[in-house]
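Here's what a typical entry looks like (DUF488 family protein):
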Amino acid sequence: MTARRSSSQPQVRVRRVYEAPSADDGTRVLVDRLWPRGLSKADAHIDAWPKDVTPSTELRRWFHGPDSDYAEFRRRYEAELHTEPAASALERLRELLGQGPATLLTAVKEPEHSHVPVLLEQLES
């Protein structure tokens, strides 16, 4: 999964954190609230871990529960990203990504059906 940014902004890639780091990853940013299982911090090569831009524990639990709905999850997560402390953390992440190539890392098995696309949209707005 690759996010296209405007020509004045660097490209942001999305990869699973379990993949080996690549020389062209740029700044490696973990965008999960919980540390990935079975991965040491030394092996992850994480440059930033802005937990405040990730879905809250409550939202994450709801999304993985029996009553979850992706459209509703998106709506709730977008709302979270517009409140503090997430809004400030989102702005800091925009600034970090503006400094050069970057890779958002996640442990989710299906990044395209997770919080990651929502986060990318908010970063581009």
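Residues 4-8 have pLDDT under 50 and may be disordered.

More examples are in the samples folder.
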